[in-house]
Amino acid sequence: MLEVTGLRVAYGGIQAVRGITFHVRQGEMVALIGANGAGKTSTLKALSRLLNAAGGSIRYCGKEISALPAHQLICEGIALVPEGRGVFPRMSIVENLLMGAYTRHDKEGISTDREHVFSLFPRLKERAQQLAGTLSGGEQQMLAIGRALMSRPKLLLLDEPSMGLAPLMTQRIFEVIRTVANEGMTVLLVEQNAKLALEVSQRGYVMESGEITLTDEAANLLANPRVREAYLGE
């Protein structure tokens, strides 16, 4: 579904992403793990066209998308849950969810999907008319994921969904990510918590200093001594 070849991202003269190549198959959940500053978020920003790539190719469902404007990617079936959540603070939960469906015109389907989001996140349903800016960090993360799902994406990009969350809330968020993946969603997960990311994914890529240094089945990466020492604290 997603094929990235020789992707480079630069900030001025600084190379944040140095010609990486990777792929995500349809129906797969793939983790991109690495330390802070490894280039993971820059990669997702390039994929979602929030940053212009300095080079390389991004193909989605066989189509080159590296020059498409960011807003068009939603219509193509790609949705990003950004680092920091990016909810609309002065809008209610329901209004935020409807913003996720702004490209759609099927009112019945939108209503059905909203109820599906509420079934995944009952806490959002309880607070449906509450302003997003008054929610806790975990609730805002739930809302950001729900809003992305409202566009009915084929490919979901998740950027650091556990960042700043308490362990119990992180566990709940990852349960939902696993549920969404089990429903057939294709997911590319960028996450600092390597253990959690690899536990829910089929495959993984390890990124260091802007380069992919290791790739394998997720279970093999979890057992890899180098990964365990560097990212699992063992």
Overall shape: globular
SSE topology string: EEEHEEHEHHHHEHEHEEHH
Largest sheet: 6 strands, mixed
Spans of at least 5 consecutive residues whose pLDDT stays below 50 are none
Q: Helical stretch count?
A: 10
Rounded to an integer in angstroms, the radius of gyration calculated over CA atoms is: 17 Å
Q: Estimate percent helicity.
A: 25-40%
Report the average pLDDT across residues.
94
Family: Belongs to the ABC transporter superfamily.
Protein name: ABC transporter ATP-binding protein
Domain ABC transporter: 2-234
GO molecular function, one term: branched-chain amino acid transmembrane transporter activity
Detail the topology: elements first, then pairings.
Layout lengths: L1 E10 L2 E11 L4 E5 L6 H8 L7 E6 L2 E2 L5 H7 L1 E4 L11 H8 L6 H14 L1 H5 L10 H13 L5 E5 L7 H16 L3 E6 L2 H7 L2 E6 L2 E7 H6 L1 H7 L3
Parallel strand pairs: 3-8, 3-9, 6-7, 7-8
Antiparallel strand pairs: 1-2, 1-4, 4-5, 9-10
Write up this protein.
With 234 residues, this protein is α/β, with parallel strands linked by helices. It has a domain at 86-148. Helices cover 39% and strands 26% of the residues. The chain has 10 helices and 10 strands. The chain has helices at residues 40-47, 70-76, 93-100, 107-120, 122-126, 137-149, 167-182, 194-200, 218-223, 225-231, and strands spanning 2-11, 14-24, 29-33, 55-60, 63-64, 78-81, 155-159, 186-191, 203-208, 211-217. Strands 6-7-8-3-9-10 form a 6-stranded mixed sheet, with helices on both faces. A hairpin with a 2-residue loop joins strand 4 and strand 5 (63-64). Helix 3 runs parallel beside helix 6. The radius of gyration is 17 Å and the shape is globular. The chain starts with a strand and ends with a helix. Residues 2-234 form the ABC transporter domain. This is ABC transporter ATP-binding protein. Keywords: Amino-acid transport, ATP-binding, Cell membrane, Membrane, Nucleotide-binding, Transport. Belongs to the ABC transporter superfamily. It holds the Pfam family ABC_tran.
